[in-house]
């Protein structure tokens, strides 16, 4: 299996009453980014100032090329407490996930997570959120960019079949 071109991984904790310093004290580590609800936040690189609509605490792992989510996860979690009671308290009060941005160079790439990584996330109750980005079309050879007539006709037929099975009056009240 060909690995994905790149992975970006961030542990995210959020909630309206989140105070970043309190989360840092519980986890034993500082965030890459933190904000409390109502604080002004300056955008990068635009310098546009907005008011935070919720509190958040983010810890971002170094980007990996090619992807290596296993090492990114263990780097993040290894820098924080392993006390499962702390993680449970955080989950009870806030949203907690591990956001992964996955970037493909080609149309057929994949990834595998080790059992150790899955267990590390699972015992802490950390949800895994994956955003997968297809390769940019201008990075592909011309032959890969232009769908073949056969692929177009199969896709057109599938859409036609799907639409034919839909009744626009299904949502009407009787």
Q: What is the element layout, followed by pairings?
A:
Elements: E1 6-15, H1 20-27, E2 33-35, E3 40-42, E4 49-51, E5 55-60, H2 69-78, H3 84-93, E6 95-103, H4 115-124, E7 127-133, H5 142-145, H6 149-164
Write a structural description.
It is a single chain. The chain has 174 residues and is α+β, with helices and mostly antiparallel strands. The chain has one domain (6-140). It is built from 6 helices and 7 strands; from the N terminus they run βαββββααβαβαα. The chain has helices at 20-27, 69-78, 84-93, 115-124, 142-145, 149-164, and strands at residues 6-15, 33-35, 40-42, 49-51, 55-60, 95-103, 127-133. The strands form 2 sheets. The protein has a 5-stranded mixed beta sheet with strand order 2-5-1-6-7. Strands 3-4 form a two-stranded antiparallel ribbon. Helix 4 links the parallel strand 6 (95-103) and strand 7. The chain is globular and about 45 Å long. Residues 143-174 have low confidence and may be disordered.
Q: Structural class of the helices, strands and pairings? A: alpha+beta
Helix content: 25-40%
Main sheet makeup: 5 strands, mixed
What is the number of independent domains? Answer: 1
Task: Give the topology string: H per helix, E per strand.
Answer: EHEEEEHHEHEHH
Rg, rounded, reads: 21 Å
- Strand content range: 15-25%
Number of helices: 6
> How many β strands by DSSP?
7
Taking pLDDT < 50 over at least 5 consecutive residues as the criterion, the unreliable ranges are 143-174
Mean pLDDT: 83
State the end-to-end distance: 52 Å
Trace the largest sheet across and list its strands.
Answer: 2-5-1-6-7
Instruction: Describe the global form.
Output: globular
